[in-house]
Amino acid sequence: xxxxxxxxxxxxxxxxxxxxxxxxxxxxxxxxxxxxxxxxxxxxxxxxxxxxxxxxxxxxxxxxxxxxxxxxxxxxxxxxxxxxxxxxxxxxxxxxxxxxxxxxxxxxxxxxxxxxxxxxxxxxxxxxxxxxxx
Amino acid sequence: xxxxxxxxxxxxxxxxxxxxxxxxxxxxxxxxxxxxxxxxxxxxxxxxxxxxxxxxxxxxxxxxxxxxxxxxxxxxxxxxxxxxxxxxxxxxxxxxxxxxxxxxxxxxxxxxxxxxxxxxxxxxxxxxxxxxxxxxxxxxxxxxxxxxxxxxxxxxxxxxxxxxxxxxxxxxxxxxx
Lengths: 134, 177
Prior knowledge:
By secondary structure, chain A is mainly alpha-helical. In chain A, 90% of the residues lie in helices and 0% in strands.
């Protein structure tokens, strides 16, 4: 009981000691003067604030987010298409090179066959001449 | 019921309306700063800064209760920041200014001594004591405002009260609070 009384007396004394003090004379006027001064010198940030206020509207915010998402998706698809075209072009070029190589090999092969048959003919002629002399 | 602000947001608040808000809350903001810092000029500087910040943030505040909550919270945090930044020394017992308004009841000497002792408490307990006894806030409200567990708020209050009572008894002898 005595402890409760002590606590209550202490709290009452603290409440009396800590009660609000009035602000100094002219305090509000000084605050308002600083606000006016700030408003006149900071028109830039104020303009930024007004843009931010527009942007802070939910419709504008969601619209911007949607546009950004659509731009990202479109960009991704375009990149994918460009990469795909590049791979296709490289594959076609490779195929053409392969065809040219095959043609060159075929030509070289036919020329070799021709040379071989000529050599065979010459060898056969020389053998016949030798037999006739003997 | 929460009293609505004079206008929807800061852009719509005319200067006379903001002046009314300043006049309504200036004593609260100034007193929290004064009791915390125990320095009239520092308290005025801090209170002005808080009210300028309020002007810039009015768009996000929807009612007078919200404004009051915001002001108490920002003033409290700014007091702690101010003290840490300026590295103000621990308040000497004779430095605490006299009360501008004479006490209606109770011992003015005792009240002055109590303010001196409160100003010498560590930062967080000091803020908790000021919010509890100046602003008459409940422990739950203080806990919500300072993002501090209720048990911590109650512990700060109990320990601060015990310490204040002990120091008062030690310095004033038989005088009991």
